[in-house]
Structures are given as structure tokens and as C-alpha cells.
Amino acid sequence: MAKKKSRTRPSSDLLKLLATRPRAVALAALHVSESVLLELEASELLSARQIRGLLKDASTTLRNAAGQVDNRSCFIASEIVDSMRENFTRNKS
Fold first, then answer.
1. Are 81 and 48 in contact (CB under 8 A)?
2. Dist CA 58 CA 39 (whole Å)
3. Contact 40, 47 (CB under 8 A)
4. CA distance 37 to 46
5. What residues make up the domain containing 78?
6. Quick check: helix, strand or coil at residue 21?
7. At CB < 8 A and 24+ separation, what contacts does 82-91 make?
8. What pTM was computed for the model?
9. Of 15 and 56, which is predicted with more confidence?
10. Which residue has the higher pLDDT, 64 or 9?
11. How far is CA 2 from CA 5, 6, 7, 8, 29, in A?
12. How buried is residue 81: exposed, middle or buried, by Cβ count under 10 Å (0-12/13-18/19+)?
């Protein structure tokens, strides 16, 4: 039987860091996400086409959210995801 990973709460220091450094948190999340997508492709769990579709869906969802709540952050995030998709397409062509 596999050993269950323990899930502990983040320390208060980590929570303070996350709260005071939103740009760094966003940048870290962006790079981790990109690495995960590249690894999914490298391990052949997802094709390049599926990854581009996933990024397109994410961008569309963010753009729709931006329109519904007039949230500029969602719109900018959708542009970032679109840029990731374009770069992924360019690098895989």
C-alpha cells in the first residue's frame, strides 16, 4: 500500500510571503505550469495539439471572466496564456 503524503498547512512565514509578493507568486505559478505542460508532452501524456487546446480553453475562460466582472487582471492573464500558446506553437512547428 502506498504511503499517504501528509498535508500540512503552510507556515505563517510562507503565508506572509505569498501575501506580500503577489507578482513573485504569479511568476512562480506561470513557470511551474509551463514546466508541467512541457513534461506532459515529453512523457507523451498529452500531445502538442492537446496542450495548445488546453491553453486556448484557459485563455477563453479568463477572457469570459474578465467580461463578466470587468476584471482587468483576468484579461491580462488571458493575454499571457495566449502568448504561452503562441510560443508553444512556434517552438513546436
1. no
2. 18
3. no
4. 8
5. 46-93
6. coil
7. 82/55, 84/30, 84/34, 84/55, 85/52, 85/55, 85/56, 85/59, 88/37, 88/48, 88/51, 88/52, 88/55, 89/52
8. 0.71
9. 56
10. 64
11. 9, 12, 15, 18, 28
12. buried
Angle between helix 12-20 and helix 22-42 axes, rounded to 10 deg? 100
Q: By the 8 A CB rule, do 30 and 55 touch?
A: no
Per-residue model confidence as pLDDT tens digits over 34-45: 999 999 999 999
Inside any domain, residue 1: no
Cα distance between residue 76 and residue 72, in whole Å: 6
Counted domains in the chain: 1
**Would 33 be classed as within a structural domain?**
no
Query: 41-80: string of b/e by CB count within 10 Å (b at 16+)?
Result: beeeebeeeebbeebeebbeebbeebeeeeeeebeebbee
Q: Which amino acid is at 3?
A: K
